[in-house]
Amino acid sequence: MTSFQHTTVLLHEAVEALVTTPDGTYVDGTFGRGGHARAVLQQLSPQGRLFAFDRDPQAVAAARAEIDDARFQIVHANFDQMRSELAARGVEQVHGVLLDLGISSPQIDDPTRGFSFRFDAPLDMRMDTTRGETAADFLARADERTLTEVIRDHGEERFALQIAKALVAGREGGSPVRTTGELSALVARTVKTREPGQNPATRTFQALRIFVNAELEALEQGLSAALALLAPFGRLVVISFHSGEDRIVKTFILRESRDVPDRRAPMAPPKAMRLVSLGRVKPSDDEVRGNPRARSAVMRVAERTEVVA
User: Fold this and answer.
1) pLDDT value, residue 65
2) Of 37, 45, 48, 261, which is most buried by a Cβ count within 10 Å?
3) Got the DSSP string for 238-289?
4) pLDDT (tens digit, 9 = 90+) per residue, 196-207?
5) At the top level of CATH, which class does the domain 11-106+215-304 belong to?
6) What is the 8-class DSSP label of residue 99?
7) Which residues, 6+ apart, have CB-to-CB distance to 112 below 8 Å?
8) Where are the domains of the chain?
9) What confidence category does residue 10 fall into, taking pLDDT thresholds of 50, 70 and 90?
10) In this structure, which long-range contacts are made by residues 50-54, counting pairs with CB atoms below 8 Å and at least 24 apart in sequence?
11) Taking a C-beta distance cutoff of 8 angstroms, is the pair 29, 99 a contact?
12) pTM
């Protein structure tokens, strides 16, 4: 198996926020290459347990090959399935859930995965390569309006319409985009104003990856699943790298951190708050200097209230 290096972002801060009892049961919803998982295991007692999830078969294979620990179990599934997957294993409550969102360095650095414009490779972009539509297949069928919405909404790309028009024109002219190099070149020809230090295709690649993997939908479902699993005083720790992701996490925590009246029964007591926000953490300057990928990271931490409804 090819080895790719990955530097875990906010490693110590995340594990310190997550693990409140060494005997507890925890979830690492995004194993990646196991940086957080290994650090969590170091904090657990012999009675503690850690369930890790990843939709990427390569990540699952790495976990099985590299971590030999009776307290650890890897599950080949996305984190939005954590509640049903744990129930099938007899687990109804956990003491903490960690989600490290986005893409891992091994996925970016492997040319065959199609995530990076640094290599010319088939435009795949699926995190789970065993199922789903590739980015190239999506570009081959989507109309101009859909392409514009995806690139604008998921990539925050102000030239989304122009890029969508170029993609459709190329496809109708007999030259559909099938590789990362072709997509990168098309965007470079289309986007005339470039952000300093950033490849003009960065936002388009990000948008397609998020869309192909339904990352924002999975995040919303995963947050709800995590909340349903958390025991009293259990911790939810989420690291995001994209403003759209962080907005979803922030809104979810805010919504669950206040009493909500039932409009259908105005005289009934309001639905009790279920989370308490414990704050927001950014990487230190030293971490950003050592790992530029950490620059956009935001970690939000919340705790389950004492009473679980």
Assistant:
1) 95
2) 37
3) EEE-SHHHHHHHHHHHHHHTS-B--TT-TTSPPBPP-EEEEEEE---HHHHH
4) 778 899 999 999
5) alpha beta
6) E
7) 121, 122, 124
8) 11-106+215-304, 129-212
9) very high
10) 50/25, 50/26, 51/25, 51/26, 51/27, 51/75, 51/82, 51/85, 51/86, 51/89, 51/91, 51/94, 52/27, 52/28, 53/27, 53/28, 53/29, 53/77, 53/78, 53/79, 53/81, 53/82, 53/85, 54/30
11) yes
12) 0.90
Cα dihedral angle (148, 154, 159, 160), rounded to 10 degrees?
A: -10
Residue 6 to residues 19, 104, 294, 308, Cα–Cα distance (Å): 22, 7, 12, 37
39 pLDDT above the threshold of 60: yes
Q: For residue 119, what is the DSSP state?
A: S
User: HEC profile for 148-198?
Assistant: HHHHHHHHCCCCHHHHHHHHHHHHHCCCCCCEHHHHHHHHHHHCCCCCCCC
The values of phi and psi at residue 179, to 5°, are: -130, 165
Residue range 219-277, pLDDT digits in tens: 999 999 999 999 999 999 999 998 999 999 999 999 999 875 555 655 555 567 799 99
Look at the domain 129-212 and name its fold.
DNA polymerase; domain 1 (1.10.150)
pLDDT for 4:
43
